[in-house]
Automatic annotation (TrEMBL):
Organism: Candidatus Kinetoplastidibacterium stringomonadis TCC290E
Example of a GO MF term: glucosamine-1-phosphate N-acetyltransferase activity
Residues holding Mg(2+): 108, 230
Function: Catalyzes the last two sequential reactions in the de novo biosynthetic pathway for UDP-N-acetylglucosamine (UDP-GlcNAc). The C-terminal domain catalyzes the transfer of acetyl group from acetyl coenzyme A to glucosamine-1-phosphate (GlcN-1-P) to produce N-acetylglucosamine-1-phosphate (GlcNAc-1-P), which is converted into UDP-GlcNAc by the transfer of uridine 5-monophosphate (from uridine 5-triphosphate), a reaction catalyzed by the N-terminal domain.
Gene: glmU
Chain segments carrying region Pyrophosphorylase: 1-232
Active site, renumbered: 366
Protein's name in the database: Bifunctional protein GlmU
Amino acid sequence: MIFMLNIIILAAGSGKRMQSKIPKVLHTFAGRPMLEYVIESAKNLNPDSITVVLGHEADLVKSCIKNNDLNFVLQESQLGTAHAVMCAIPMISSFDNDDSNTLILYGDVPLVNVRTLRSLLDSCHAGISILTSISDNPYGYGRIIRNEFGDIVQIVEHKEANCEQLAITEVNVGIVAIQTEKLKKWIGIIFNNNEQREYYLTDLVKIAVDDGVIVGSVSPNDSWEVLGINDHIQQANIERIYQYEQAKNYMSKGLTLSDPRRFDVRGSLKFGRDVFIDVGCIFEGVVELGNDVHIGPYCVLRDVTIEKNTRIEAYSHISNSIMESNVAIGPFAKLCKGSYIKSNSKIGNFVEIKNTNFGNNSKASHLSYIGDSNIGSNVNIGAGVVTCNYDGVNKFRTIIEDNAFIGSGSQLIAPIKVGESATIGAGTTLTDDAPADQLTLARVRQKTVVNWKRPKKN
């Protein structure tokens, strides 16, 4: 038997409680808009269609969520959740029988597990099934009303509930699985005769009961799956839940974390055996860590590959770079786009590397800037060395060949080449190529000015 699945994602709200010009569903956690997480979960169900209902700043949302597999519809006036679904009805398909289901999701409920959604769809055989949860703090949620047999007979919105109903802790999450033909039939008989003058999707439950259909229900394994984001406090709370769940998953696969509650992955993290990560580290984009890699506290890594036995010391920031094996980085080092650090090299404290190939067994141990450079093997770069690669308009490369020694406080004015085994004396400003195997220096002869006195304040 062939089943058809349509998914509708409601994402039209402005999110007034966010107090932001940014539409609510574009606010991020773990580095991505919350709507992207919902779309990703929807795609994992392999649906026949996904329709996103937009409203506030619809064009901005469409431009930020670039996906050719989505249908977008506009809810010009936000008249309630059922009205939003009505706007999407023309986009969903069904067969003549009951072999087509529609799943209704929310763009601000990003953590719901695909396993939970599959269970909800499986429980939809009678016609409709809803996702419910037991809440210690049910304020604001619609309450699930059951009869003496335990069957769901109604959902009462918080604002419409009486004192007895407000005491109920089983709440409606809002996510619904329903046979498509029943949705098309029932959605048109929802009215807005309530205090808010809105069309409530929850009225589907009473309509189903009146039509003699048993309403199914499923609850998630973890209550945090169904938490929504309506303000920045909830946004931060969900961020921490998500990161802690990621941390537990990584630790179960062998990653050693100093503190799983002080750990953030805002992309993807791959790691080998015996990898250690200290507190406060942030991983963005695609990060790959080889065996026996050690990451010190409060490092930020973005789109980085690090091979085995490499140590990244505290407070180092690395982006779009590659480190081979047995490399030492930091503390307080910065590696920028296009840096390739070869094996057994050292980039020390307060050293910045950008768009540079840094050779085997070479080192820049302290307080240097190396940009747009090719550094050979066994090169020593002293403290305070600067490659002057930018003339205000164009950038130029510095080439330092194998076994060169660059004295402290030197400035290399690119484009320039330092030959193999050359030595550059400390304090040199190099404006011409330095020959191989020679000492090159450029200094003004020291002199003392007799009888000079420091100026004094008037």
